[in-house]
Design a protein that fits this description.
disordered N terminus; disordered C terminus; globular; 71% helix; 355 residues; mainly alpha
């Protein structure tokens, strides 16, 4: 007797589930079941501090200063992406303050606002811009430039906008930021010329180091959250509200970046780069920053960013494929000019992973 093959459950191609998110969820579950405590917590905390410094050292070593300078030739596009990332996003985050304390707790709102301050992604901005047949060179430079600026701007904005809340920002916090984030990043930039060959040859291995370091940071942060008893604040209703707020936030930024780019006179390819680089947030940069900025409250602070990361991948995958279909339709030729000229730059050696 022939048996019918059992049907396979397949995830639709337009619904990408990032394996890294699954690893992050598994790490959170491990921290919930077996949180680090006592001597183990001290060791994990020290290792986490070292991992954060290593991450930002590698970020600095990967980013080519020359490419960044070359990218300034397309300065209007990059200023537009920076305005989306560090101006429009924070303004929308501040507008959500009215949801506290009725829909969101102060701690969840701090995490939501921190999400709005994180720099843009590099890898996924490039990938979606390429799928949508946009200006890939501009997306490379815009994402890299946002990461570079975010090393300084994100902590300063967090100190300014979140400092008066429950997270307790202080001069000591800013000093830790400088020591753990800025100094390793600058060291990576200074040593780049001597180690760039090594980074190129061992790109895959260093990618695993990146992701493993972030997982260690997440485990340490969520273990501290378990010890502090912060998770009783996350009820299913508040989580549903948080998802709804993030969906509105993402829709608003996708619309503002797309139609705003048209209003500013950018061509179709440039508008695609602006939309994808200006509407997304970097998980790879945000998680280590949150561990430094929020301490024991970092587990709640990174929750909105983790949710937003998966949401942006799912939505942008659909949009990118739609843009690609639109590109196949006949289009009026655009007259090259200062506003539509693509940036002439090369692809960097490597970009941060786990975004």
């Amino acid at each position: 007797m022939n048996r019918r093959p059992s049907p396979r459950i397949r995830i639709p191609s337009w619904l990408p589930v990032d394996p890294y998110i699954l690893a992050l969820i598994g790490t959170v579950a491990l921290a919930a079941l077996l949180p680090a405590s006592g001597t183990v917590a001290d060791v994990a905390g020290g290792a986490s501090t070292g991992a954060v410094a290593l991450l930002f050292f590698l970020y600095g070593a990967r980013l080519s200063t020359r490419e960044m300078v070359d990218g300034l030739k397309h300065w209007r596009l990059h200023l537009t992406v920076l305005a989306c990332t560090f101006l429009l996003f924070p303004l929308l985050g501040l507008a959500a303050r009215g949801l506290v304390p009725f829909a969101l707790t102060p701690e969840l709102y701090s995490g939501l606002l921190f999400l709005c301050l994180v720099p843009s992604t590099v890898q996924s901005s490039i990938a979606f811009t390429s799928i949508a047949r946009g200006n890939v060179a501009a997306a490379i430079c815009a994402g890299s430039f946002s990461s570079l600026v975010g090393i300084v701007i994100t902590p300063l904005l967090a100190a300014l906008l979140i400092g008066g809340g429950t997270t307790g920002f202080s001069a000591d916090s800013l000093f830790r930021i400088a020591v753990q984030l800025l100094l390793p990043f600058l060291a990576g930039q200074l040593l780049r010329r001597w180690i760039v060959g090594f980074l190129t040859r061992h790109r895959t291995l260093l990618g695993l180091v990146d992701r493993g370091s972030v997982l260690l940071v997440v485990y340490t942060a969520f273990s501290q959250g378990m010890a502090a008893g912060v998770w009783h604040q996350v009820t299913p209703a508040r989580l549903a509200v948080l998802l709804g707020v993030e969906a509105v936030l993402l829709a608003a930024m996708l619309s503002l970046s797309w139609y705003g780019g048209k209003r500013l006179g950018f061509g179709h390819a440039d508008r695609i780069a602006i939309q994808f680089a200006g509407s997304k947030k970097s998980l790879a940069a945000g998680l280590p920053m949150a561990s430094v900025l929020f301490g024991a409250q970092a587990s709640l602070a990174v929750l909105p960013l983790m949710l937003f990361h998966q949401m942006q991948l799912m939505v942008c995958a659909v949009i990118a494929k739609r843009r690609a279909k639109d590109a196949q339709q006949p289009r009026q030729p655009e007259v090259p000019g200062p506003r539509n000229r693509p940036a002439s730059i090369r692809t960097p050696v490597s970009t941060p992973v786990g975004e």
